[in-house]
Amino acid sequence: MQAFGWREAVPIYVDNEFSQGVIPCLITDALQAIDTRVPYRSVISPEASDDQIVEELYKLKTMQARVFIVHMLPSLGSRIFAKAELNGMMEEGFV
């Protein structure tokens, strides 16, 4: 984050017991240690529909968020990345 000059990042993680308990603290603590702001946390249900995923991605896109840290199972992660690509969030300007 520091090497690229990124000052804020949005974590995107699956809504399960492990992620809810551990991931927010680890990510937030690590980012705060390097003076990186976390303006929003995106928590997605493992059973999220494609429409729900697109809705959350749209919210992120309209927030002007550009740096995302994704932590989830590959099955859900691949769906999120596919929808992000369809919505123009895998282009230059997004990380």
TrEMBL record:
Gene3D superfamilies named among the record's database cross-references: 3.40.50.2300
State the SUPFAM superfamilies in the record.
Answer: Periplasmic binding protein-like I (SSF53822)
What range(s) does the Receptor ligand binding region domain occupy?
Answer: 1-95
Assigned GO CC terms: membrane
Q: Which Pfam families match?
A: ANF_receptor
Spans traversing the lipid bilayer: none
Main location class: membrane
- Per its UniProt record, what InterPro entries does this chain match? ANF_lig-bd_rcpt, Ionotropic_Glu_rcpt, Peripla_BP_I
Spell out the subcellular localization from the entry.
Membrane
Per the record's keyword annotation, is Membrane included, yes or no? yes
Keyword entries, A-Z: Membrane, Transmembrane, Transmembrane helix
Tell me what this protein is called: Receptor ligand binding region domain-containing protein
Where is the organism placed in the taxonomic lineage, from the top? Eukaryota, Viridiplantae, Streptophyta, Embryophyta, Tracheophyta
